[in-house]
Amino acid sequence: MAIEEQTEREWLAREKAPREAVFFFTPLCGTCKIGLRMLEIAQAAGADAPIAKININYAPELRDVWRIASVPALVLVRDGEPVQAEYAMRSVDTLYRLLQTFSSS
């Protein structure tokens, strides 16, 4: 299951989910590609939180307001507001548990 890429404008304009995740990446970042693959596996395994991916190079507003320090970055968002940012994509299991815990909180 692929995670759909959105532009910053598309993400900001759509209807917000109560709980969701945003994965920030850059196209040439190898660690980002690995993190994205781990998120796709976690999602296929049943992690409930919807996930969007956004190229941070074209997301200056979210990058600055949310203070995204580096990529890859997985930001957990509740009602349109960031509540947690993860920069270390340790394992599929860690990401799966993080998303499941967040979805049920």
TrEMBL record:
SUPFAM superfamilies, alphabetized: Thioredoxin-like
A Pfam short name: Thioredoxin
Superkingdom of origin organism: Bacteria
Protein name: Thioredoxin family protein
Residues annotated as transmembrane: none
Boundaries of every Thioredoxin domain copy: 22-98
